[in-house]
């Protein structure tokens, strides 16, 4: 039994963040152009959501608009503040779902699809 | 702590098995994110603000490649926006990797040996020709505690000069003098833990959503989870912090003394004060002559009540523009909540009446007894990661000695002379020049040699341009220890020494809530960079050898590393109100911070001071005490001061010629002079350039819209910036961030300073604003 679990873990861990990242290039923008000037709807949802209230801005998940840009952020982007939750996502979800977004809305971060049972302990505020 | 792949697999298997049967298991903190392709996670503290968030850095192949919050520390694993990108500061292209000497208009690379020889020769020459007070050190609230303590010993004890000050003079001096003048001892009595118990928050002069985001996160959590928690935000700008406020009190910049006195007026007139607390623990005081030294007079409660008669809310409204209804509401919420916690920062400290306005916040807590209980406390937020631990506590200010001792106090000087093994009288009795005074003396030539470490006064001093001339003069010798080059200070230096940065060295940080934390070295320094402490040790020994005092140097400066210095610090603090004796290096390595006083190795640290339930020092001063005891107010029978501090406005209010008030401050993306955060591509993209924030009504008056160029002019200089038209500042106020080296707003700010704390008034000066 232990051997099977170890093998399973090796398989899960072999899927590196890079392999899951869905990157694409951002169009060139003037330095003083803010994300909200084009991404109006997303910015509005973000501003009124948890990350908006706490000023966790676009760059934390999406990087810069240069080579660091990530259109669909990998779960690794969340480690800074949500290390434990990220670990649980990595350990407990199917390969195709290894992100926060099957359950959480992309920009408000509110729970859109509650899991059948509590997935991870909520450590943050309401 | 190194985590092997095998350990990780074992934990992974256990977690998967537990999940399969419906159990929730947590990974040990050091394993969280352990598959993020790192060799090890090393415990430390964030490099930026004084909140002092616990972190782990992920190291791979000798390089810091990842960061995560420490969930066992006060910040519960959370980081702010810029904390998430910290590793990048170590690998910026402009990291300085070897010593540089200025030759003509150019800097040339030299060896460390050459650099130290030149520095020692210049300092020795100046001391020989002009005396010890001709050399100076200007330090930082970002240096480690061990560095601050050691260099303070070199200058005040070894050389016998008090020409040593630090940049907390520019940010925390008014808070420090505010605590000392009210309570007798510096530093807050409370802790972040109080946030979880408070039912009312009074936040004044602080944009904590951007300047202290993780503290703001906890305040918001309390607001969301608590019942009927009230948040009062007093600020001339309606900042992002005001998003969670129940009451935003807007007022004309510099008129908050009138508002705070009016709140006290309401509290007393409506009988909302705690007579029992006031009678038992306070004594009313007024300043009859500012001195120096200031002449203080004790007065009666009736005198205080009569003084408040000058500040009914309607009068305060006329002075401040803050509606009287808001003042009354704020006073009632403050007094009537189960527990009220105040927060403030530079909006109060960076003022010519900074100490007074600090005293007036403390007054509200003392009047109402909203102090020394869980949730009830008067809490000053700190701007730099070690302003408290290194500079305020360690005494790296020109009027202080370590751990609560003062230069002007004969007994304190004698105590330190004995502790350091110095001849009697070695420590000068006259305080040295404070930050602005020091750079004025560098301009006039009264100071000939200066060593600046870990700070950037060529950008951060108020009214900076005249001081830049002194720093860049050929008649003086300026040494700058920096991790980056060029900065707006290092470009003016004669000698630039490459400094190890953050987790490239080990040491101790002490943050806002008296929590001291050890930072382990995680990686080797860039190039030939060295920890400042090692440079200080070498400099001290070489200088004293050159001066023919080698034997004395061997005794005074025998420390070999930061642990040696830390152990000396522990002994130096023993028996004081600080007392770190229980904070051994071995214990600090394991702990997620320890709050002083912590007198013994089995002591858990002190969450709240001055109350018997939480502070074991109380019984030391009075074995019978079972509640609040301000042992810090020993001189007045353990009573602390209720101050009569009249309203007085800023040094330079707006007038017909300069009709706007200019205030400066932070954006969440950047920190201080941007030497670190502006090198992080993501942060630079998010906040790329300086701007002026102006409200739509004022913008319409001068005919500008967002992205138009605007010229701002003060009596000291002018600057052209892009406008951001937003309804944040009140009418007649504009805001400019302080971070940008190419647009230094400090060319315009005022260097007038508080007579008591000597902290300059960055927050208010008069300007005219025109379409460029």
Assembly category: heterodimer
Strand order of the largest sheet of chain B: 5-4-19-18-17-6-7
Low-confidence stretches of chain A: 1-22
Give the overall form of chain B. Answer: globular
Low-pLDDT runs of chain B = 1-6, 11-34
The portion of residues forming beta strands of chain A comes to under 5%
Q: Beta-strand level of the residues of chain B, as a percent range?
A: 15-25%
Largest beta sheet of chain B, briefly? 7 strands, mixed
Mean pLDDT of chain A: 77
- Percent helix among the residues of chain A? 25-40%
How would you characterize the overall build of this protein?
The complex is a heterodimer of chains A (126) and B (772). With 126 residues, chain A is mostly helical. Chain A is 39% helix and 0% strand. Chain A is globular, with a radius of gyration of 16 Å. The termini of chain A are far apart. The model of chain A is unreliable at 1-22 (pLDDT under 50). With 772 residues, chain B is of the alpha/beta class. Chain B is built from 25 helices and 29 strands. In chain B, the strands form 7 sheets. A 7-stranded mixed beta sheet of chain B has the order 5-4-19-18-17-6-7, with helices on both faces. Chain B has a 6-stranded mixed beta sheet with strand order 25-27-26-29-24-28. In chain B, a hairpin with a 5-residue loop joins strand 11 and strand 12 (295-299). In chain B, helix 3 (145-159) packs parallel to helix 19, helix 4 crosses helix 13 and helix 10 (313-320) packs across helix 11 (324-336). The radius of gyration of chain B is 26 Å and the shape is globular. Mean pLDDT of chain B is 95; it is low at 1-6 and 11-34. Classes of the chains: A mainly alpha (126), B alpha/beta (772). At the A-B interface, helix 1, helix 5 and helix 6 of A face helix 1, strand 3, helix 6 and helix 24 of B.
How would you sum up this structure in a few lines?
Chain A has 126 residues and is mainly α. Helices cover 39% and strands 0% of the residues of chain A.
């Amino acid at each position: 039994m232990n051997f099977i679990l170890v093998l399973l873990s090796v398989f899960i861990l072999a899927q590196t963040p890079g392999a899951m990242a869905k990157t694409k290039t951002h169009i060139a923008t003037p330095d003083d152009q803010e994300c909200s000037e084009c991404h109006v709807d997303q910015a509005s949802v973000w501003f009124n959501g948890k990350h908006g209230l706490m000023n966790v801005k676009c760059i934390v998940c999406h990087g810069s608009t240069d080579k660091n840009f990530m259109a669909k952020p990998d779960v690794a982007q969340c480690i800074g503040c949500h290390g434990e939750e990220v670990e649980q996502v990595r350990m407990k979800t199917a390969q195709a779902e290894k992100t926060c977004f099957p359950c959480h809305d992309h920009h408000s971060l509110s729970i859109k699809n509650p899991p059948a049972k509590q997935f991870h302990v909520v450590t943050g505020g309401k | 702590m190194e985590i092997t792949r095998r350990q990780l697999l074992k934990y992974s298997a256990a977690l998967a098995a537990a999940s399969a049967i419906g159990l929730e298991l947590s990974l040990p903190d050091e394993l969280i994110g352990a598959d993020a392709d790192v060799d090890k996670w090393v415990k430390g503290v964030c490099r930026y603000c004084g909140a002092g968030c616990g972190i782990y850095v992920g190291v791979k192949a000798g390089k810091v490649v990842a960061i995560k919050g420490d969930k066992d520390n006060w910040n519960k694993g959370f980081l702010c926006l810029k904390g998430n990108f910290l590793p990048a500061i170590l690998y910026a292209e402009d990291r300085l990797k070897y010593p540089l000497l200025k030759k003509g208009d150019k800097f040339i690379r030299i060896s460390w040996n050459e650099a130290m020889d030149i520095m020692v020769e210049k300092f020795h020459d100046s001391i020989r020709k002009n005396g010890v007070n001709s050399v100076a050190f200007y330090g930082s609230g970002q240096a480690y505690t061990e560095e601050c303590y050691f260099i303070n010993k070199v200058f005040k004890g070894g050389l016998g000069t008090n020409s040593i000050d630090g940049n907390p003079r520019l940010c925390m001096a008014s808070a420090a003098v505010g605590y000392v003048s009210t309570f007798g001892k510096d530093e807050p009595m409370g802790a972040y833990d109080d946030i979880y118990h408070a039912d009312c928050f009074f936040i004044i002069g602080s944009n904590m959503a951007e300047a202290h985001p993780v503290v703001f996160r906890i305040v918001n959590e309390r607001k969301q989870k608590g019942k009927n928690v009230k948040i009062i935000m007093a600020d001339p700008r309606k900042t992002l912090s005001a998003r969670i406020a129940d009451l935003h009190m807007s007022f004309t910049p510099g008129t908050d003394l009138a508002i705070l006195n009016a709140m006290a007026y309401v509290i007393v007139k409506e009988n909302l004060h705690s007579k029992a607390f006031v009678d038992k623990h306070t004594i009313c005081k007024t300043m009859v002559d500012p001195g120096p030294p200031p002449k203080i007079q004790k007065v009666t409660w009736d005198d205080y009540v009569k003084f408040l008669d000058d500040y009914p809310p309607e009068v305060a409204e006329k002075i401040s523009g803050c509606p009287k209804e808001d003042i009354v509401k704020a006073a009632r919420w403050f007094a009537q909540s189960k527990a009220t916690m105040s927060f403030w920062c530079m909006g109060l400290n960076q003022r010519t009446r900074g100490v007074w306005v600090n005293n007036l916040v403390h007054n509200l807590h003392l009047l109402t007894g909203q102090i020394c209980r869980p949730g009830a406390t008067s809490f000053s937020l700190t701007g730099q990661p070690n302003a408290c631990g290194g500079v305020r506590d360690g005494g790296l200010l020109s009027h202080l000695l370590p751990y609560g001792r003062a230069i002007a106090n004969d007994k304190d000087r004698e105590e330190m002379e004995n502790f350091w093994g110095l001849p009697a009288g070695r420590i000068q009795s006259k305080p040295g020049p404070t930050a602005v005074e020091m750079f004025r003396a560098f301009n006039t030539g009264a100071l000939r040699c200066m060593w600046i470490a870990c700070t950037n006064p060529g950008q951060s001093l108020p009214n900076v341009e005249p001081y830049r001339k002194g720093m860049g003069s050929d008649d003086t010798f300026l040494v700058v220890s920096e991790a980056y080059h060029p900065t707006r200070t290092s470009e003016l230096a004669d000698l630039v020494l490459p400094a190890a940065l953050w987790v490239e060295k080990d040491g101790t940080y002490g943050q806002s809530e008296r929590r001291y934390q050890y930072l382990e070295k995680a990686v080797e320094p860039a190039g030939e960079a060295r920890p400042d402490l090692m440079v200080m040790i070498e400099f001290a020994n070489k200088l004293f050898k050159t001066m023919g005092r080698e034997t004395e140097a061997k005794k005074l400066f025998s420390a070999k590393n930061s642990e040696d210095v830390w152990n000396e610090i522990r002994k130096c603090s023993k028996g004081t109100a600080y007392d770190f004796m229980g904070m051994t290096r071995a214990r600090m390595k394991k702990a997620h911070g320890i709050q002083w006083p912590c007198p013994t190795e089995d002591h858990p640290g002190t969450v709240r001071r001055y109350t018997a339930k939480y502070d074991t020092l109380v019984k030391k001063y009075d074995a019978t005490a079972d509640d609040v005891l301000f042992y810090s107010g020993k001189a007045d029978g353990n009573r602390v001061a209720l101050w009569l501090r009249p309203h007085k406005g800023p040094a330079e209010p707006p007038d017909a010629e300069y009709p706007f008030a200019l205030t400066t401050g932070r954006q969440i993306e950047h920190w201080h002079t941007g030497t670190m955060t502006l090198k992080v591509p993501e942060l630079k993209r998010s906040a790329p350039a300086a701007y002026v924030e102006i409200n739509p009504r004022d913008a319409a008056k001068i005919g500008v819209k967002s992205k138009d160029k605007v010229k701002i002019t003060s009596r000291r200089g002018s600057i052209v910036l892009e406008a951001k038209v937003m309804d944040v500042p009140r009418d007649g106020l504009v805001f400019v961030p302080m971070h940008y080296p190419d647009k230094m707003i400090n060319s315009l700010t005022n260097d007038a300073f508080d007579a008591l704390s000597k902290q300059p008034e960055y927050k208010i000066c008069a300007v005219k604003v025109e379409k460029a």
